[in-house]
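Dissemination and training. As part of the outreach component of the grant, students in the summer workshop were shown how a complex can be specified as a set of sequence lines and then modelled as a single object. The example used during the hands-on session is reproduced here so that future cohorts can follow it. Participants entered these lines:
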Amino acid sequence: GAVVSQHPSRVICKSGTSVKIECRSLDFQATTMFWYRQFPKQSLMLMATSNEGSKATYEQGVEKDKFLINHASLTLSTLTVTSAHPEDSSFYICSAGGRRGVAEAFFGQGTRLTVV
Amino acid sequence: GEDVEQSLFLSVREGDSSVINCTYTDSSSTYLYWYKQEPGAGLQLLTYIFSNMDMKQDQRLTVLLNKKDKHLSLRIADTQTGDSAIYFCAEKSGYSTLTFGKGTMLLVSP
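and obtained this result:
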């Protein structure tokens, strides 16, 4: 089946620094990828829809200047958490697929971000 | 907005069957999914069902859909300790993104 790879799986950074998370679709072209955030014991919250070659679409309440998304190719989307703060510590997951006519949505392994 | 609800916790003994329930509110849901999440890992698609089906079986997994009541269930036969994880129900309609439940933590004891 299709595979989505996310990197890194864990990252610890200092407050004020920026962190980049990569999401790659390994065996299919993904014009659209999704970025989710998961709080402990909570469901996944959609942060933004990443569109290849155009600007990302952010969900209400998500700061686009803080969570920069770049979808430069059909196989790679990146999420950069800028000027990270401890409250940004969370589990971030990307997905690809799940388009109309494509039932499956494939998820990356997730990235555990800890800001100290 | 649309909502997906699931019970938060289920505990079973190894070898028993597990049934995880889910309800949703979007009557235009096209696909309904079950995902498994092990600690610290991403989501693994277990199975999905089209809204025009009422049952789907895949080895130890059986999905039942009651579209009238908007109720979805996942039955795991002969539950093993390796099945211990969080199970997410999710729904999708048309071009929309997935809407997830909060997840059900399944604990399987020996």
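The mean pLDDT of chain B is 90. Students were then asked to discuss how this feature might be tested experimentally.
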